[in-house]
């Protein structure tokens, strides 16, 4: 069986894949140098250029949204060869009249001792935005995520946890009987059937957003550094209303721009650039 056939089988079966050593050492060093330069005193909802701090909850750690604006190291992740073709097949409406990708959320996360993230999502939600599907030889996923580890993530480091196969589940896990808001107040939560995914720096976790996922509480010293890009079909919109700046769109490659802006705005007086993702 070819490697890509096995990966397709395991992704369909489990809802996630681990991509080993996909970020080369120089790129990894550039990403970590960018993290070192982040303003550590940036307050919640404050802006740093086109990047905003917007933590999902007060235990998740520091989260910087719209992170693709933070420099070339993040721009190079837009269409990274380790995953971009898979994203096109899984959630890019491949081989249809409206094929194309869009990144509807991209952020950097720093989680230090004590932070954790409750489990959420699952096939039972049936939300079109993050649905999982495969029919007639084509993937029909609403959202597929790539989580890039910039530091080793071992047990106790607050790693991502998933419930394999839950992207197809018709039933909610019993842990979801308690509200998400109430679970955010916990020190941690026990979720039977969940596994913690360990990663080496430079490796990545690719997963359907339909899978039930979250993160364990970090009990080790230091910090967990990850970058997360969420891909969906080209007709999507950013989750929190962020917009990619014209300066960024002018700076990236045409292929990258077609992902950040797959549908060029039609404005009064415009006569060119009306094609989807066109330059």
Description:
This protein has a single domain, classed as Sandwich (Jelly Rolls), CATH 2.60.120.620. The chain contains seven helices and 14 strands. It has helices spanning 3-14, 25-37, 72-75, 84-91, 180-183, 246-251, 254-260, and strands at residues 16-19, 47-48, 51-53, 62-65, 101-112, 117-120, 134-135, 138-139, 144-149, 160-162, 195-196, 204-208, 213-215, 223-233. The strands form three sheets. The chain has an eight-stranded antiparallel beta sheet with strand order 1-12-9-14-5-4-3-2. A four-stranded antiparallel beta sheet has the order 6-13-10-11, with no helix packed on it. It is globular and about 55 Å long.
Summarize the structure.
The chain is 19% helix and 23% strand. The protein has 279 residues and is α+β, with helices and mostly antiparallel strands.
Write the layout of secondary structure elements.
Blueprint: H1 3-14, E1 16-19, H2 25-37, E2 47-48, E3 51-53, E4 62-65, H3 72-75, H4 84-91, E5 101-112, E6 117-120, E7 134-135, E8 138-139, E9 144-149, E10 160-162, H5 180-183, E11 195-196, E12 204-208, E13 213-215, E14 223-233, H6 246-251, H7 254-260
Antiparallel strand pairs: 1-12, 2-3, 3-4, 4-5, 5-14, 6-13, 7-8, 9-12, 9-14, 10-11, 10-13
Helical residue percent band:
10-25%
CATH superfamily: q2cbj1_9rhob like domain
Task: Give the CA-CA distance, first to last residue.
Answer: 40 Å
CATH fold-level label: Jelly Rolls
Q: What are the segments in which pLDDT stays under 50 over at least 5 consecutive residues?
A: none
What is the rounded Rg?
Answer: 18 Å
CATH architecture: Sandwich
Helices, by number, come to 7
Strand coverage percent: 15-25%
The overall pLDDT average reads 92
Count every beta strand, where a strand is a DSSP E run of 2 or more residues. 14
What count of structural domains? 1
Read across the widest sheet, the strand sequence of neighbours is 1-12-9-14-5-4-3-2
Structural class: alpha+beta
Give the SSE string.
HEHEEEHHEEEEEEHEEEEHH
| CATH domain class | Mainly Beta
Shape: globular
Q: What kind of sheet is the major sheet?
A: 8 strands, antiparallel
């Amino acid at each position: 069986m070819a490697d890509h056939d096995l990966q397709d089988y395991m992704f369909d079966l489990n809802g996630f894949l681990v991509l080993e050593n996909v970020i080369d050492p120089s790129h990894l060093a550039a990403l970590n140098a960018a993290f070192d330069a982040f303003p550590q005193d940036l307050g919640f909802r404050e802006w740093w250029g086109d990047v905003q701090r917007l933590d999902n909850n007060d235990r998740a750690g520091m989260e910087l949204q719209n992170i693709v604006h933070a420099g070339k190291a993040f721009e190079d992740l837009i269409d990274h060869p380790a995953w971009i073709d898979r994203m096109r097949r899984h959630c890019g409406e491949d081989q249809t009249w409206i094929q194309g990708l869009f990144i509807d959320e991209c952020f950097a996360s720093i989680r230090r001792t004590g932070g954790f993230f409750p489990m959420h999502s699952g096939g039972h939600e049936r939300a079109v935005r993050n649905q999982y599907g495969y029919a007639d030889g084509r993937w029909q996923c609403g959202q597929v995520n790539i989580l890039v580890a910039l530091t080793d993530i071992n047990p106790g480091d607050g790693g991502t946890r998933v419930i394999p196969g839950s992207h197809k589940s018709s039933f909610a896990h019993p842990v979801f009987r308690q509200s998400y808001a109430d679970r955010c107040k916990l020190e941690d939560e026990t979720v039977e059937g969940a596994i913690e995914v360990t990663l080496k720096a430079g490796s990545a976790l690719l997963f359907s957003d339909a899978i039930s996922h979250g993160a364990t509480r970090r009990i080790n010293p230091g910090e967990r550094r990850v970058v997360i890009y969420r891909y969906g079909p080209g007709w999507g919109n950013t989750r929190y209303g962020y917009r990619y700046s014209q300066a960024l769109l002018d700076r990236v490659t045409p292929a990258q721009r077609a992902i950040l802006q797959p549908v060029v705005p039609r404005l009064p007086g415009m006569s060119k650039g009306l094609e989807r993702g066109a330059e």
